[in-house]
Amino acid sequence: xxxxxSYWLLGLIPIAILSWVAVEVQRDxxxxxxxxxxxxxxxxxxxxxxxxxxxxxxxxLTGRSPEDRGPGLALAYAKNIWGVRVARNRAELIEHVDNYxxxxxxxxxxxxRLGGYVPSEAARQTLLDAARNEFPKAAVADExxxxxxxxxxxxxxxxxKFTLKNLAALKRGEAELSALDLSMRGExxxxxxxxEVRTALESRRPRGxxxxxxxxxxxxxxxxxxxxxxxxxxxxxxxxxPTDGDKAKIASRAKTLFGKMTISDRSDVADGSPKDWAKAxxxxxxxxAQLKSGEAxxxxxxxxxxxxxxxxxxxxxxxxxxxxxxxxxxxxxxxxHYPRSDLALPSGGYVMGIxxxxxxVDVIGMVPSEAARAALVDAVRARFPNRTVNDKTQxxxxxxxxxxxxxxxxxxxxxxxxxxxSILSDRKLDVSGxxxxxxxxxxxxxxxxxxxxxxxxxxxxxxxTGTMKTDLSWKAIRESNSMITLxxxxxxxxxxxxxxENAQRIYPGxxxxxxxxxxxxxxxxxLSASRxxxxxxxxxxxxxxSIEGKNLAIHGAAETDxxxxxxxxxxSTDLPPGFKVTDAITVMSVEEKAADSxxxxxxxxxxxxxxxxxxxxxxxxxxxxQTLKDLxxxxxxxPAFSIQIEGHTDAEGTDERxxxxxDRRARAVAxxxxxxxxxxxxxxxxxxxxxxxxxxxxxxxxxxKNRRIEFNVKVN
Length: 716
Prior knowledge:
Elements: H1 5-44, E1 51-55, E2 58-62, E3 64-65, H2 70-79, E4 86-89, E5 92-93, E6 101-106, E7 111-118, H3 121-134, E8 139-146, H4 153-168, E9 172-178, E10 181-187, H5 191-203, E11 210-217, E12 225-231, E13 234-241, H6 244-257, E14 262-265, E15 268-269, H7 277-288, E16 293-299, E17 302-308, H8 312-325, E18 331-337, E19 351-356, E20 360-367, H9 370-383, E21 388-395, H10 403-413, E22 419-425, E23 428-435, H11 438-452, E24 457-464, E25 473-479, E26 483-490, H12 493-506, E27 511-518, H13 526-537, E28 542-548, E29 551-558, H14 561-574, E30 580-587, H15 590-608, H16 625-636, E31 641-648, H17 655-675, E32 683-687, H18 700-706, E33 708-715
Parallel strand pairs: 2-4, 3-5, 7-8, 10-11, 13-14, 13-15, 17-18, 20-21, 23-24, 26-27, 29-30, 31-32
Antiparallel strand pairs: 1-2, 6-7, 6-9, 9-10, 12-13, 12-16, 16-17, 19-20, 19-22, 22-23, 25-26, 25-28, 28-29, 31-33
Helix pairs in contact: 3-4, 6-7, 7-8, 10-11, 12-13, 13-14, 15-16, 16-17
């Protein structure tokens, strides 16, 4: 059989067609596979800037390399990819700049602009991530451009991240990296931040980053206050200085002037000092050193200078120096006193007096008998155990009825004053003096009148010579056992009473515990801010709210998201200007709401019922049985929760005895509940003694309220 070649040729045609179709069909798959594997290899090598373009099995590289050797490296990696036939390089280098600058500008918390040059896309992304982390609420504008420069990239990137971290701490500011030289300027929100940023720029920069300039301004203090207090064996400096250099100079001057006395520098740094402030401070320190004790305090251009001179000559010299040497733009009030050998008493009538000079106490005037003289001097020495008491009295008949009560009424308040006197003329008692304690200045007149009663007519003139506070620290705590505790500092007694009235209005039927201390400050904006704080705390089931200066923080549990958001909304709009708010409000879970419901039932049942003990014992009285049975029934209806039983006593007796008694009474209640079906493993007890009063222990009614048992239901 012969082979016909023409037939072979005819058979090859369909085979060729089929082969061409197969190649064309698989061509896209081959190109996609090569492109993928080439890109992966380049990315692993840190060459992600290079883009492979595949045609058949040929690869062409494009892109802009941040390094001179980048295109060659990318080509070498592409040639080593299995399946690549030919690799060609069309990559370029990014722009090279000699003046390599990068900048960051913050206009406040809402906007951040990044400009200048970055060495790579990876560096750009790292800085954008760092910016969003440091400025979480800011809109970040990326105006950075790729460019090469003569920098160490790792050091440069560390410097840029360091810059963003410190820029974020400022109210506003701008920074620039010129190569590896850092410059920053801006305004710090607080003195602490000012000092922290300055310290970081000066001593905590990344290795290799140089500080070209740092112009960080401290916050503006309004009013600009400063004080120096000399007393005992020490001198205390407080308030603000314009710069760290001024602060150091003042402390150094004080050490020189006051010799071996201890210098306690509690001052901080702030802007806002008046003209010639440093000179005025230097003069007042010089004159304070001439006194036995005293204080110089500035509030902007107002200087108050108080103290005790050794004698009239020294007092006159100090007054003259203050008037002549303190710059004329300052207004000066001086209250310099000095010991006098005696005190001129009113003429006529039966007169006696007690004079506290600050260093000793003189008892002068008339006493009805030698026994009365001895008793009075002993009483004065008991009140002033560390002072020299000079008895300058004389025995004379004719003392008015109630003489002793009026003398004691005046004497009782004198130890609370820096200096002062109590003069009794027949049936008129006059108390006067000075104090740094604002609460004493406010309460001494009322205390004198209350102690004297109807026995004599009283007048009191007490001068406050201390420094008014501007940054009060206050807190309100709402416990789930329906008790509101107010603690911390209040500006004055009327404000304290007003806040208690607000609390009683906002929390009707709940116990208000007042642990506040009057310190002396402006009532506003504290009173308005604390009222808003109490109102929003009342919307939470439990929690606390605190005010530190103009920073308000609230945390607690809200029943719903809507309640939590409502509290946040009110605090953001209704507080006085300048206040900042932070919150940690959580929304109660189903279990927490159930526990809160059980807590409310137990509280209502215990408050409406009776839980009594035999006097000074932990034995439950018979009339407590029904209330405790009702409580056991409620506890068994809430089997998923633990119950803490608190014991509280009044203030009668010693602290140790009250503590033990409250422990035993709480345990007695737990034993009763356990005996009536409540799982003992759910019950814990704690005794607080008399440490958590809810009423005044000075009255029987108040002491009765303080003797109590409370229940806290908690989620296990």
